[in-house]
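re: the backbone from monday

yeah here it is again, tokenized this time
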């Protein structure tokens, strides 16, 4: 599953077992945060997800700002809720631009894009992570380990 976490909405995308196709799902409202965590964890459970890829927003120079801190905090909360599932952060620079381009090329009007953009961005994030995994044979991204957990992390 791929997530594009924002302060208003969380875009969600899913890849069935074969990981050859990705599907954007309906976004999840990000507020209140505890409800958002519950809704994401419910989707993970219902779909039998084994890995959640979360986009980490970075500035073009690679630095992290307030949005990245927000995503890291959300990721920690989610890791505590679903400790049995691997969570990882992957660089999401330009994912929203790619999503806008995909929607525009698909003929989606500008005013209709708002309800779809976050989940298509999550789809872009998930596809990127799956490509990395296929190319390297390694799990993608920086693993999120719930504070106090005994799981060991990997890095990008």
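seq for it, each position gets an aa:
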């Amino acid at each position: 599953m791929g997530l594009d976490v924002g302060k208003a909405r969380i875009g969600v995308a899913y890849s069935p077992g074969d990981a050859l196709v990705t599907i954007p799902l309906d976004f999840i409202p990000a507020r209140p945060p505890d409800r958002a965590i519950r809704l994401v964890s419910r989707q993970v459970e219902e779909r039998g997800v084994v890995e959640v890829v979360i986009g980490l927003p970075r500035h073009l120079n690679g630095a992290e700002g307030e949005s990245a801190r927000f995503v890291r905090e959300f990721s920690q909360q989610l890791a505590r809720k679903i400790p049995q599932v691997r969570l990882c952060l992957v660089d999401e620079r330009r994912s929203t631009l790619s999503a806008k381009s995909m929607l525009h090329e698909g003929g989606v009007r500008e005013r209709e894009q708002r309800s779809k953009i976050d989940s298509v961005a999550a789809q872009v994030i998930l596809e990127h992570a799956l490509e990395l995994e296929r190319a390297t044979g390694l799990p993608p991204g920086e693993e999120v380990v719930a504070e106090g957990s005994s799981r060991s992390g990997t890095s990008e």
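The chain is about 40% helix and 20% strand. The radius of gyration is 15 Å.
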